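Exercise 3.2. Students should predict the tertiary structure of the chain below and write it as structure tokens, then compare their answer with the key that follows.

Predict this chain's 3D structure.
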Amino acid sequence: MRVKINLRCTECKSKNYISSKNKSTHPDKVRVLKYCPKERKVTMHEEV
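Answer key:
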């Protein structure tokens, strides 16, 4: 069962990306390094 998730920048708190994950195999929140256009650098993004 895949669900859509929003990824939010931990520094500027803006929602920049939409992704999906399998909730049964990955129940924890997703944390990935992504480019933030507002900050203009790579920052940590986490699932909202």
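Discussion points: The CA atoms of residues 8 and 23 lie 18 Å apart. The radius of gyration is 11 Å.
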